[in-house]
Design brief:
The chain has about 180 residues and is mainly alpha-helical. It is globular. The protein has a single domain, classed as Ankyrin repeat-containing domain (Serine Threonine Protein Phosphatase 5, Tetratricopeptide repeat). Strands 1-2 form a two-stranded antiparallel sheet. It starts with 6 loop residues before the first helix and ends with a helix. It is about 45% helix and about 0% strand. It has helices at about 5-15, 25-30, 55-60, 65-75, 80-85, 100-105, 110-115, 140-145, 155-165, 170-180; strands spanning about 130, 135. A hairpin with a 5-residue loop joins strand 1 and strand 2. Keywords: Signal.
Length: about 180
């Protein structure tokens, strides 16, 4: 089930996408499409497409068409840099460095997150910057949503999916790192 794009994600997307994209409009439209009949051959469009580094995996989060996302991730099965492409952070002037998985989490696209969590190479515990420059994980995003009462049952479903996938809050990762150093 795909929910309408939440206002905070739409605003984030508008801030991240420059007015003049360096890609053909049809490519942008294709990557942001929700029409599964448009499933293209993705390898040529998975790499960064915009000046800020958004890839087709990022842009697919706009509509979150699960069939298109499945096609895109399947196209990477033999890619030599599979993990790098799946976890590619954007590089914005504001300092946000969000990997594709975070876009789906912010959009509450539970089915797409569940797919990505199951894809080999997707790192559920990547640490990235939030809008204030703080370091967070996708689990931190979900916990903030829960604390703020947003998203209702979808947030709880999202949390369950991420927990099953091994996702943790940034503080938990730091404690684990500290414990490894003590050994």
């Amino acid at each position: 089930m795909s929910l309408p794009l939440p206002p905070h994600l739409l605003l984030l997307l508008l801030l991240l996408l420059p007015p003049s994209l360096s890609l053909p409009p049809d490519t942008f439209s294709l990557c942001a499409s929700s029409d599964p009949s448009l499933a293209p051959t993705f390898p040529s469009t998975l790499l960064p497409l915009t000046p800020d580094g958004e890839s087709c995996l990022h842009l697919l989060a706009i509509s979150c068409s699960l069939p298109l996302l499945q096609s895109a991730t399947a196209s990477l099965d033999n890619h030599p840099h599979r993990s790098k492409v799946l976890n590619l952070p954007v590089a914005t002037k504001t300092g946000l460095d969000m990997p594709p998985l975070s876009w789906y989490v912010f959009g509450l696209h539970v089915d797409c997150v569940e797919h990505l969590v199951g894809v080999e190479g997707v790192e559920v515990n990547l640490v990235f910057r939030d809008e204030k420059g703080g370091r967070i994980t996708v689990m931190d995003v979900v916990e903030r949503m829960r604390e703020n009462g947003g998203g209702g049952g979808e947030v709880d479903r999202m949390r369950e999916v991420l927990v099953r996938g091994g996702a943790k809050r940034r503080e938990e990762l730091e404690v684990e790192d500290d414990n490894k150093k003590d050994l």
